[in-house]
Specification:
The protein has about 260 residues and is of the alpha/beta class. It has nine helices and 15 strands. A six-stranded parallel β-sheet has the order 5-4-1-13-14-15, with helices on both faces. A five-stranded parallel β-sheet has the order 7-6-8-9-12, sandwiched between helices. The longest helix is centred in the N-terminal third of the chain and has 12 residues. About 50% of the residues are buried.
Length: about 260
């Protein structure tokens, strides 16, 4: 049996721990094992809509006990990045509470008048008026940041336009490409490692997408594990020019391999 000796763990949320807010079998046992061995971990998500508290409540409703401080979102990574780049800056924000709360906590002021940044995140109610305002601000010199490049998001009714799709619209109108902070940018992984005070050589990343989770983990120097409970099949994984260190059917397959 393989022995997993990494001292810290990062894992994607959708497709790894939950599927449409229902816990994937074995996910709670894996998290319980991490807690028993006192191994630090963060649950990562590119979705910037919700705060840590919101996501912890949603996971709990699905049967998973994940504390708020063990959740890391693209909104938090974006706020962390901006705080480092331009402390105490200003931003025009298109997004929900997950993003605005993170930026406020980072010391940012929300404004529509000559902001340092236009920050685009996830929302179910994209406003044509606010998109137009974002375009005009970027034309006027504001820098363009987006939380993540995902073009669509899944819902029970079908796919929904997401940050990447709206970013493409704004880019086409302005000729300005955004800087995406979330996966597959390894910056998302680096910010998570900093949050855990962990080193990349001793940390693993578990994901269900080769083009976001696995490539970001590889570029950040992490051990990478692909699970097949999300959007990627084993055949599809073989088509990529890079490989995960391991491919397993489910996170449940890793429970008994964890050692301190």
């Amino acid at each position: 049996m393989t022995r997993l000796t990494q001292s810290a763990w990062l894992m994607d949320m959708d497709g790894v721990l939950v599927h449409e807010e229902v816990a994937i079998p074995g996910a709670e046992r894996f998290l319980a094992r991490l807690r028993k061995l006192d191994l630090p971990f963060l649950v990562l998500t590119n979705n910037s809509t919700y705060t840590r508290r919101d996501l912890a409540a949603r996971l709990r409703a699905g049967g998973l006990d994940v504390p708020e401080e063990a959740i890391w979102t693209s909104a938090l990574a974006t706020a962390d990045f901006l705080q480092d780049q331009r402390p105490g800056g200003t931003a025009f924000v298109i997004g929900e509470a997950g993003l605005t709360t993170a930026l406020h906590q980072a010391g940012y002021t929300m404004t529509e008048r000559s902001p340092d940044y236009v920050v685009l995140g996830e929302t179910r109610t994209y406003s044509f008026e606010r998109i137009t305002r974002a375009i005009r601000l970027i034309d006027g010199g504001s820098r363009f940041i987006a939380t993540n490049p995902d073009p669509i998001g899944p819902t029970t009714s079908g796919p929904l336009p997401a940050t990447g799709a709206v970013a493409a619209l704004i880019s086409r109108a302005t000729g300005v490409a955004p800087y995406f902070v979330g996966k597959p940018n390894p910056l998302m992984m680096r910010s998570a490692l900093n949050e855990l005070a962990a080193h990349s050589e001793h940390t693993a990343m578990i994901g269900d997408r080769m083009d976001t989770d696995i490539v970001a983990g590889l570029e950040a120097g992490l051990e990478t594990i692909l699970v097949l409970t999300g959007v990627t099949t084993r055949t599809e994984a073989e088509r990529f020019p890079y490989r995960a260190a391991r491919i397993v059917d489910s996170i449940a397959d890793l429970v008994d391999e964890l050692v301190a």
